[in-house]
Amino acid sequence: METLILFEAIKRSAVGIFSEEGLQKRLARGKPLKIKFGADPSRPDLHLGHSVPLRMLRKFQDAGHEIIFVIGDFTGMIGDPSGRNKTRQPLSFEETRQNGESYLEQVGKILDPAKAHIAYNSEWLGKMDFAEVLELASKYTLAQILERDDFANRYASNQPIGLHELLYPLMQGYDSIALRADIEVGGTDQTFNLLVGRELQKDYKQEPQEVITFPLLPGLDGVEKMSKSLDNYIGIGEAPEIIFEKCMKVPDSILPEYFHLTTDIAAHEYSELLASDIRQAHFVYAREIVRLYHGESAVAQAEKRYFSIASGNAPDNMKTISITGGRILIVELLKQAGFAMSNSDARRLIEGGGIKLDGETVRDANLTVAGDSVLSRGKNKFVQIHFV
Amino acid sequence: METLILFEAIKRSAVGIFSEEGLQKRLARGKPLKIKFGADPSRPDLHLGHSVPLRMLRKFQDAGHEIIFVIGDFTGMIGDPSGRNKTRQPLSFEETRQNGESYLEQVGKILDPAKAHIAYNSEWLGKMDFAEVLELASKYTLAQILERDDFANRYASNQPIGLHELLYPLMQGYDSIALRADIEVGGTDQTFNLLVGRELQKDYKQEPQEVITFPLLPGLDGVEKMSKSLDNYIGIGEAPEIIFEKCMKVPDSILPEYFHLTTDIAAHEYSELLASDIRQAHFVYAREIVRLYHGESAVAQAEKRYFSIASGNAPDNMKTISITGGRILIVELLKQAGFAMSNSDARRLIEGGGIKLDGETVRDANLTVAGDSVLSRGKNKFVQIHFV
User: Which helix (H) or strand (E) holds B289?
Assistant: First the structure.
């Protein structure tokens, strides 16, 4: 890839570049650069959120640069409190290694393993003695570290911050020194840590790394960032049918962002699709993600399984009822489907937990249904709902 | 020394005992205890302020307990910011060793070197790796560390606090763990650090040390605590005549404290003396301190030198004038001594800087003289003033 094309690709998806001029100059040298990407091995299951920067790293690889993938096996023993409001449970050294191995396997789904260099930060941090730690710690003041939002917030709200946690940004920054990184890529929640690396390199008489930050993908809840611990994630190592099903559940409002950040589908293509048929857009998205992480051959099977799950094993020839007006209350729908005799009857059925929509139990008797779906009562009664 | 006598001696001079009951029980075991005393080697010249806890340690020694003298050669590389409002310049490893050696020599003036065990904290802190540092750091939260007054004050007034400095109390506390200290003794400015040691021992499953804190001796300015950097100190390693001269300058108001904290002279004895003749009390004090740190043989010579310095080389056979009434204005005295013809003449002489009292230039023309002294004009004219 031409340097300019790479630079434009970065600009298109990056949130922050520190500094843009420095990055441009460094890329223009035409020499292979060391691109650092730090991974927290306490989250062994890579998800689509992780894929955002990883897919950019792939572009760097394709342009001939060296990706240094830092498995934070040492830092993982503390756990980065970034963006979280409580002290994490530390992992054992063994756990971080195991998680790192798993991480490595999954990264192979996005990066070319032959062109990635893997490094464990225990290799250098584990060898530092107290005096070296003190020297490192002396480069930052408390006030500077407390500028990090989560520290500031926790301190302000009287939540405990372990002294060891304050050292985390410095440890991650020291990784850049040990690796002599040219560029570091990460999520926007890592901006502070990445810039610490840039500053520390100056203190250690190195050319300061360029920092590129990428947007955080919102999770399936459409509110929080995608994260395993919030269970709002699509794991790239998950089974094809699970990925397919989860992709179908991406809220309509954020599906454009998912297309933009996690696929190579051109903007005009998905924009058109989204505007014309949102359900179809979900299918296209789900097929693309399964294809990316499990290959073309897995798509059809995943889609088939999805229908089977969504319909709760609905029979092939279901009765179909047509609904006009674009939306209908669930109690009304139950009556039209012939499952309930009255509104109160319908409510009882819902309260009893026997009513499902696309395989998922309906809990809210005031629900409005507004899209094609399969309605079921118990294990045997299915109706295909079709909006006309 | 009986355990009870030792306990009473501690209670008499200590400011704080954490806990009194614990200390009493521990002493009552009748077994030799490990008494820790931490020394900051960035201050190689021991002064009378240091002697306050050291003299108590001598009593512990005499009662059969083991004194562990911690030379903070490792912590000295950072410098303890206790009670100071700025980041200290770190010392090199070599400097701290040299200072430690000097410290050791001087301590021999108070402690029995044969009964003291010397330890350098680089022996254990220097061997700690990053993971062990993190474990230690995890035992304290930022809020707990910021309870230390000087940190809180510096943070509140936006003065920089290096992250490494926050680790200082933990390092000093870890010394107690490495030594398995039973008791730690220190100045009141070290109370926080000493209690950190006590708490950390619990975290590391040790019986928590008892903590005994001693008052800080005010310096010769009568305001700040005695400290080399404020140049208000009497160094126990200084020459006898320097010690003598400095002791003579102790402000009257704090001389009782000096007697109480730095000598073995009984309270009723020095109280009587102070009440009857403050100048004589200064001589007694100066002789006692010279005797303590240079031996009886050095006292006479130091006193002689003091007079020589104080009088600006006054001749042996001076004219003596006797003054009645207990006090006299300096201008009146100059006339009686035959140095001035009139009040205005006397004032001119004083303004000209040629008049000295006990070798010190008189600046205040309204000064009242109220004790035996040597008055001089220029380099050749001396009069002994004697109050009758």
Answer: helix B278-294
Distance from chain centroid for Cα B346: 40
The interface pTM score, or ipTM, of the predicted complex is 0.70
Residue range A199-221: average pLDDT? 96
Residue A183 has pLDDT above 50, yes or no: yes
Helix (H) or strand (E) holding A6: helix A3-13
Chain A CB contacts of B171 below 8 Å: 130
Report chain B residues whose CB lies below 8 A from the CB of A133: 130, 133
Pairing of strands A319-323, A381-387: parallel
| Local confidence band at A333 (pLDDT 50, 70, 90 cut-offs) | very high
Q: What is the pLDDT of residues B299-324, one digit of tens each?
A: 988 888 887 765 555 555 567 888 88
| A310–chain B Cβ distance below 8 A for any pair | no
CB B225 within 8 A of CB B217: yes
Using DSSP, state whether A202 is helix, strand or coil.
helix
Using a CB-CB cut-off of 8 Å, the residues of chain A touching B78 are 134, 138
B161 touches chain A (CB under 8 A): yes
- Give percent of chain B with pLDDT exceeding 90: 53
> For residues A237 and A46, is the Cβ–Cβ distance under 8 A?
yes
Strand segments, DSSP code E, in chain B are 16-18, 34-39, 66-71, 116-120, 183-187, 210-214, 319-323, 328-329, 355-357, 360-361, 368-369, 373-377, 381-387
Ramachandran area for residue A158 (φ above 0: left; ψ -120 to 50: alpha; else beta): left
> Is residue B103 within 8 Å of residue B71, measured between CB atoms?
yes
Encoding tokens for residue B218? 């005010």
Indicate the angle between helix axes B240-248 and B278-294, nearest 10 degrees: 150
Q: Is B379 on the interface with A (CB under 8 A)?
A: no
Determine the pLDDT at residue A374: 81
Decide: B89 and B81 in contact? Cβ < 8 Å: no
Q: Give the C-alpha separation, B196 to B37, whole Å.
A: 14
Is the CB of B133 less than 8 angstroms away from the CB of A130?
A: yes
**Rounded CA gap, B371 and B357, in Å?**
11
Q: Which residues contact B118 (CB under 8 A, 6 or more apart)?
A: B68, B69, B71, B104
Q: Do B126 and A125 touch (CB under 8 A)?
A: no
A223 interfacial to chain B (CB closer than 8 Å): no
Using DSSP's 3-state secondary structure scheme, residue B67 falls into strand
Phi, psi of A258 (to 5 degrees): -60, -45
pTM for the structure as a whole: 0.71
A92: tokens are 């054992």
Interface mutation vs chain B, best among A130, A138, A203, most B CBs within 10 Å: A130
pLDDT of B124: 96
Residues A41 and A227: beta-carbon distance below 8 Å: no
A166: nearest CA in chain B? Answer: B163
Q: Which of A142, A151, A161 to mutate to test the interface with B (most CBs of B within 10 A)?
A: A142
Asked if B248 has any chain A CB less than 8 Å from its own CB, the reply is: no
Q: Using CA atoms, how far apart are residues B124 and B177, in angstroms rounded to an integer?
A: 10
* Interface check A160 vs B, CB under 8 A: yes
Helices (H), A263-362: 267-276, 278-294, 297-310, 330-336, 343-351
Q: Is A114 on the interface with B (CB under 8 A)?
A: no
pLDDT of A120 strictly over 50: yes
Count CB atoms within 10 A of the CB of residue A181: 28
Cis ω for the linkage preceding B19 (within 30 of 0): yes
pLDDT of residue A78: 57
| Chain B residues whose beta carbon lies within 8 Å of the beta carbon of residue A78 | 134, 138
